[in-house]
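User: Could you check the structure of this?
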Amino acid sequence: MIKKQILEKIKQSNSFIITAHINPEGDSIGSQLAMAKLLTAMGKTVRIINADKIPGNLKFLPGAEKIESLPENYEPISFDLAIILDCPNLERIGNVRKLIAERYVICIDHHVSNDQFGNMNWTDSKASSAGEMVYGLFKAADIPLDNASALCLYTAIMTDTGSFRYANTTVKTHHIIADLLSFNFCPTKVYEHIYETKSFEVMKLLAEVLNNLQRSADGRYVWFRVTAEMLKRNKLNAESTEDFIAFVRMIEGAEVVAYLREIDQGAKVKISMRSKTDIDVNAIAGYFGGGGHKAASGCVIEANIDQAEKMLLSQIKKSIEEHNRNKKQEK
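Assistant: Sure, the predicted structure tokens are below.
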């Protein structure tokens, strides 16, 4: 029902802005590009505008060159409706929030922490990704996919499911992927673009990170840090470290993995967390004003990295202890 309502609202409008969360990744970029293809097929005028630039490993996607990043001093833009994808709250779209102020907003999101900020909201925490939801819109609109939109949706779903390894991968997900693979693109090349295009400098920094891993006494949580100095010394940007957490997640016995990265000249720390059990990292992130999924979430802590680490580890420890108590009570 909600898909039909969204499509009906789209039909009533002519011009659109599409956006998503800051620090865009595969699902964010892939779902935005596919959504733009859908709107264009419906005869609409579309611009994709994000707060941050597209990561280098996603520039191979068709249409990526048309994605705009909003400058600090932007000119007002005339448009009818904004579609926000893969984003649980307005704060997460960064400075694009000012651009869409007072405009009608459709929110399409799969985060369990979504706060229903749109004028029309379609949230589905059971969906693997925003890409999976945009695929559903193509089907509801009875608009055929083309090779470009299939590639973008495949990338969106593949990245947000950890190459189909995470618990959000469902039977439905595999049915959709089977359909997308009928189009003319090479999954191997997609994987190479996203995961196997690391520079020598990135791999050296990863080695440094792995050499300085820390874990709790019981081994149930592991964490690592990337400071501004480390990035500067290796002449790297922050986006090049985003998937470091995937390597650390492999550690046997680690139920929660946390990545702390300095931002804003050390005054803030960006936190990314992954859970390999039923420990809810979304709740941990929510304590600091962040959110995401039960198994993958993030937040920003306004403190220096030492203080942020202390605060975060305290909350992780509390969450694990509470989880243990609940498990005992269930027995």
